[in-house]
């Protein structure tokens, strides 16, 4: 029996990862601050835990409960993340701390606290996949704290890969570009929304400007995450896979 812990499992990229890993016969332990947005998705979970992973004490409590229920974990997908588009002058200490806590600190301590379960049993390959962002590499205005958090996560991925290789645990990251999720739509609404403007139309029009001609789908990222986690790809560790529709390949002054 294979177990995958997936954070941010209630919506967006996390929910797509739940579907992808479930389709490959994984037992899913979902983690989020809210219940799944789609009621039908509840059937995909072996367990679902409501946890605010911004606080290490909450992570510790979650792992204690999980340890009573399962004897090992094969895969950890750190998909939970938050976004904030504000000018530097308007970013409060609370804003900054919250973004760093969820996007960078939580993946670190989830990895740390899960190591006992990820090193249990007879295994040849276990995997951690962090959902970073293209903003760790190239970014836009108003995203300084978000880009910082994803840059930290990407750097952390490389170091963890080196440290955990001796335990037969691989650590990789996926760097998504513009993916049509609730977080992206909320971000577009805050940054560019105007009365009478349809957010879906705005997102789709943005997608048409990408080299591939469309906005990304959460399933595009989930497929990449499973690729990295799959034991058939056990020679891949410490890398960041960019899945962005060609954005980082496009030199532009726009």
TrEMBL record:
Belongs to the short-chain dehydrogenases/reductases (SDR) family. Keywords: Oxidoreductase. InterPro entries: NAD(P)-bd_dom_sf, Sc_DH/Rdtase_CS, SDR_fam. SUPFAM superfamilies: NAD(P)-binding Rossmann-fold domains. GO terms for molecular function: oxidoreductase activity. This is SDR family oxidoreductase.
